[in-house]
Specification:
Layout lengths: L1 H24 L1 H5 L1 E2 L7 H4 L4 E6 L5 E7 L9 E5 L3 E2 L5 H8 L4 E5 L13 H18 L7 E6 L1 H12 L4 E5 L5 H8 L5 H4 L7 H7 L3 E6 L7 H11 L2 E5 L7 H5 L1 H13 L2
Parallel strand pairs: 1-5, 4-6, 4-7, 7-8, 8-9, 9-10
Antiparallel strand pairs: 2-3, 3-6
């Protein structure tokens, strides 16, 4: 019997090792869920929008859409950093809602998303967002004080790092987490996630260091990113919280609904 138990324990141990090794090797396939692309031309989705090519510091060329404001222009530009899935075409309703409020918008896709070259990593995504910011500041003449970052979920970690690097008018974080391991521990409570994860995506530390006006928009029914985590981010930034009752993580009301649009508009108005 003891021999059988030893064999069974050995089988379980091997299975656990294989599982952990597999998750470590393929973890980025679980974190990043890009659409394969290609993305349609900007003007076919948002009339008046234009296709843009961003150049990253490591030599990649990434697709983006510049969406100019409609109606009275506020002279404020919103850089949108996507979450971990899809592509910029899925953010078209958000861009349409923001442009209707007089805001210019830049939608872009990370490396490996929307037909872009490269493979996504934490540093790679930040480099891609940095290229988007540089395009706005250097090529379109947007003053950093007239620039807002809007980070969606994982994109909140991207723009938090960007905000800590240099001046920006303000930040809006939609459904941010404390850091990626805090999310992974909820999904895989039986695994040593903090030891396994390569990409960490901290939010609390960089947004606290950035010291910029920050608004956090969260869904009170979010089962993926608990509201307590988003509130912790807001507390670290000494920011404002906008809670949407009954909203889940991927609900349209959080993606481009009135609460999110009003939060961005209010940040823009605060710039004067």
């Amino acid at each position: 019997m003891s021999g059988r138990l030893a064999v069974a324990a050995g089988v379980v141990l091997v299975a656990v090792v294989v599982l952990v090794a597999g998750l470590w090797l393929f973890q980025r396939h679980l974190v990043y869920l890009p659409s394969p692309g290609p993305v349609p031309p900007a003007a076919t989705v948002l009339p008046g929008a234009e296709d843009v090519v961003l150049s990253t510091g490591d030599g990649l060329r990434l697709g983006a859409w510049y969406v100019p404001a409609q109606g009275p222009r506020r002279d404020v530009t919103v850089l949108v950093a996507n979450g971990n899935a899809g592509d910029r075409s899925l953010r078209a309703p958000l861009a349409a809602a923001l442009r209707a409020e007089g805001l210019d918008v830049l939608l872009f896709d990370y490396r490996g998303f929307g037909g872009n070259p490269g493979r996504p990593t934490e540093d790679g995504l930040v480099a891609d967002a940095r290229a988007a910011r540089d395009h706005l500041v250097r090529e379109r003449g947007v003053a950093p004080s007239r620039l807002l970052y809007l980070g969606e979920s994982l994109g909140g970690a991207v723009v938090a790092r960007l905000a800590a690097e240099g001046p920006v008018g303000g930040v809006v974080l939609r459904s941010p987490f404390v850091d990626l391991p805090s999310v992974g521990e909820r999904v895989y409570p039986f695994l040593p996630v903090r030891l396994l994860l390569v990409d960490r995506f901290p939010v609390v530390e960089p947004i606290a260091r950035a010291r910029v006006p920050t608004t956090v928009v969260l869904g009170e029914a979010d089962s993926l990113i608990p509201p307590v985590q988003s509130r912790a981010v807001a507390a670290a930034a000494d920011g404002r919280v906008v809670a949407v009752p009954g909203a889940e993580h991927n609900d349209a009301v959080l993606g481009h609904g009135p609460a999110l649009v009003e939060a961005v508009t209010r940040q823009a108005e605060a710039l004067g």
